[in-house]
TrEMBL record:
Record carries keyword Repeat: yes
Name this polypeptide is given: Annexin
Annotated organism of origin: Zapornia atra
Cellular component terms per the entry's GO annotation: basolateral plasma membrane; calcium channel complex; cilium; melanosome; mitochondrion; nucleus; vesicle membrane
UniProt note: domains: A pair of annexin repeats may form one binding site for calcium and phospholipid.
Encoding gene (name): Anxa6
Source organism superkingdom: Eukaryota
């Protein structure tokens, strides 16, 4: 359900040459660069990088960084990295320097599949020669840290077997760990939300509503706090609908004054080949305007054109 597909009749060397020519001489042909890169799939872009290297002995990403600037550069360079390396770079940046961008950590670790998390951990190790879990542990604290570590293990059960008894037990355990307890047993929340499969958790949330009379989200807001609460709410949202989670993140990144460009870039790049069509659909229904239009009103220049290409169409 992505908006970006493999380009038919793809030729990596031809594309590498076209990009080389677009950057040759004084000033670069940004239009040509953005048209080419946004109409190739990630797998094809990686092949273009390899072809560029063997044709010109140069690193395409380094050349693009040199030629382009600002948000447009960030977007184009993000598109050139394999998804796991893109995620690794975002997480590295989120933990660099003083202070941590918790929202970025939450967004990536709460929304990725097991396989994507395994690839991310490997890419992080490969790119930075560091252990992602150790870096996260060094950079975060408390229950927030514990849940991130559980998510990094990426070992929820697989989705095929759901036991009704366990669904009931989990719903009861969550209720007893929160609403029915003086204080909260956070470990129970971490264990169940971090280890169970999505399909299982959806049933647990239904059961929870049945026995407690309120949605699990309301209990999380009442019982947990700070970044830990935000992380748990993100996990619940992604269990219910990843597309809806991202539609909401995109809307928040653009509404009001100023745009959270890093968030906008990260989501448009990471979802363009996965579920952009679903995100657009949810966005249109939920906010009564198309994602395409909101991007159009909120951004400008080549940056805007590239984002609109990734969005892939207007649903107005």
């Amino acid at each position: 359900r992505g908006s970006v597909k493999d380009f038919p009749g793809f030729d990596a060397s031809q594309d590498a040459e076209a990009l080389y020519n677009a950057m040759k001489g004084f000033g670069s042909d940004k239009e040509a660069i953005l048209d080419l890169i946004t109409s190739r799939s990630n797998k094809q872009r990686v092949e273009i990088c390899q072809a560029y290297k063997s044709l010109y002995g140069k690193d395409l990403i380094a050349d693009l960084k040199y030629e382009l600037t600002g948000k447009f550069e960030r977007l184009i360079v993000s598109l050139m990295r394999p998804p796991a390396y893109s995620d690794a770079k975002e997480i590295k940046d989120a933990m660099a320097g003083i202070g941590t961008d918790e929202k970025c950590l939450i967004e990536i670790l709460a929304s990725r599949t097991n396989q994507e998390i395994h690839s991310l951990v490997a890419a992080y190790k490969d790119a930075y020669e560091r252990d992602l879990e150790a870096d996260v542990v060094g950079d975060t604290s408390g229950h927030f840290k514990k849940m991130l570590v559980v998510l990094l293990q990426a070992c929820p059960e697989e989705d095929d077997v759901v036991s009704e008894d366990l669904v009931e037990q989990d719903a009861k355990d969550l209720l007893e760990a929160g609403e029915l307890k003086w204080g909260t047993d956070e470990a129970q929340f971490i264990y169940i939300l971090g280890r169970r499969s999505k399909q299982h958790l959806r049933l647990v949330f239904d059961e929870y509503l049945k026995i407690s009379g309120k949605p699990i989200e309301r209990s999380i807001r009442a019982e947990l706090s700070g970044d830990f609460e935000k992380l748990m709410l993100a996990v619940v949202k992604c269990v219910r609908s990843t597309a809806e989670y991202f539609a909401e993140r995109l809307y928040k990144a653009m509404k009001g004054l100023g745009t959270r460009d890093n968030t906008l870039i990260r989501i448009m790049v990471s979802r363009s080949e996965i579920d952009m069509l679903d995100i657009r659909e949810v966005f249109r229904t939920k906010y009564e305007k198309s994602l395409y239009n909101m991007i159009k009103e909120d951004t400008s220049g080549e940056y805007k054109k590239a984002l609109l290409k990734l969005c892939g169409g207007d649903d107005e």
